[in-house]
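Section 5.1 Outputs to date
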Amino acid sequence: MRSIPLLTLLLGGWFVVPAHADDAQNWLTRLGQAEQQQSFHGTFVYERNGSFSTHNIWHRVQDGKVRERLLQLDGSAQEVVRIDGHTRCVSGTLIAGLGDAPNSAARALDPQKLKNWYDLAVIGKSRVAGRSAVIISLTPRDQHRYGFELHLDQETGLPLKSLLLSDKGQLLERFQFTQLNTADVPTDSDLQPGDDCKTVAFDSDKASATKVAQTWHSDWLPPGFELTSSTARKDPETKTQVDSLMYGDGLSRFSVFLEPLNGATVIDTRVQLGPTVAVSRRLSTPEGEMMVTVVGEIPVGTAERIALSMRNDSAATSKQ
């Protein structure tokens, strides 16, 4: 693999073991189960685009519910509380950007599906946060998604470290625990949000979400990506309806946002910050001009092709 030299630089004590796809599938199955069954708390660092941040996390599984609290420890105060993958409150600059991605429940990994789009393999062992880990590689079979390297805790199957890599082996994003406690279950006090964490209310109008999915579709999607959710909401500033569609391949995902321009003058844009890309394109429909924006951790060329392929099923559309 092209990314192996990068790993050897990052991991002291790394050593090669035979690569086995079946073992990798078993570990990914265990990962999916661990996040739904294992309580823990710890501290992790997050790196993107050369910048670092440190976070505390409390994750409790109790009475069939998964409750999670994340708190950024440096820079501006930012906090998120989720229950079963749904955001319940946010603080800091996250409030302004919350509408940039539709809310969704936690996804269960399906290794049987993933192996159609990624080459799965156990490629080594490492030690992260004082715990023994197994390294799993997920190498994409095409140019439309990024590769992953996961360091899974040998004891619990939890992810101790995750590297997101470009097709050239460049590090795009890093998540890594510096301390992890799986013995003590987080308390109610640990999971209590701060005073600045504002409650989030989402529109649960299923009829509107269904209409979005019936109205819009893409003429082209990367192999393996499927529609996983759709939402419709009112923009608090423009008061216009913003439709959103989320697609995923079981590991990677991206969102498509569609908003009427109502005579506004805009230009096509594309922005990339680390692994996250945002591409906006105008689309002409019989109902008027629309702005289509694709946001996700996918290559920019893939995002542009998706944006250009969006169509309105209620009437024929054409790209301006």
